[in-house]
# Entry
Amino acid sequence: MKAMLFAFVAIAVIAVGANLALDEVGFTSADNNTGTAVRLDN
# Structure
């Protein structure tokens, strides 16, 4: 039971960390798919 709880916590930490890291680096789909000829509403 401890191992499963530890795994759930690890998954949550990895998911949140990856989301924050990718937002900081600029690898969002909006950043990759926009150009000068594309307008996106905020």
